[in-house]
Amino acid sequence: MKPTRHIAWGALLGLALSACGPAPEGEELDFSSQDQGLEAGCTALSPSIASHSCLHSNTSADHVAVTATSGSTASTPSLTGTHKQFDVTLPAGATGTVKFTPGTTGSWAFYLNKSITFTAKSGATTLSSALAQAVSTSCGLTNYTVYNLTAGTTYTLELGTASGNLVGVIPERVEDYNTRYYQDADGDAYGNNNVSILSACVPPAGYVTARYDCNDSNASINPGAAEIPGNSVDENCNGSLSN
Hints:
By secondary structure, the chain is mainly beta. The chain has helices spanning about 10-15, 45-55, and strands at about 30, 65, 85-90, 95-100, 105-110, 120, 125, 130-135, 145-150, 155-160, 165-175, 180-185, 195-200, 205-210. Helix content is about 10%, strand content about 25%.
């Protein structure tokens, strides 16, 4: 029998993310609170984050209308709440400004449905993005930019001109989508329990979400293999040589 992880915080967040449906079979999401930012070598976020964002984009009740200001002023509105698409109306033909205060420290990805300039600032300091990518989605999201942000700090977000002066913005905390990937050295689609990485990024080649391979150097031995009785080999990794 395969063990199951029990993480109370993960169960609570799982309810918040239940609109996504269950994770793919064998995938182990890790909802532990981590604030180390994107790991070195991350070239793209997991498609599961964009898929979750699309659920909010496709749900009218998750849309919040916000009118940006021209520059940062006392009336500049905030993007408040999570699991929302903020439909930001920009000044006609100009850059618009909104505020964002993360409730949790970490890497925050801002998904947009328009390919426009997007800049985060802390006071007068322009932040360097941790990652910026184009993305293809069924709901019209076109790109995302990731910034490492600190809980309780208010940042200003500057959004470049957009057709129709309207742009959809969906903030997602990247670490909420951490998944444990296991090294699959023999290419049988089952990984080694003892060699793994935790990431919300697209994993390197040779890593899978399924685990429990008791011999990762032999593709004929894995939990999905048929047991051959009487040969002194545990082909299906269940601890028995007979079934």
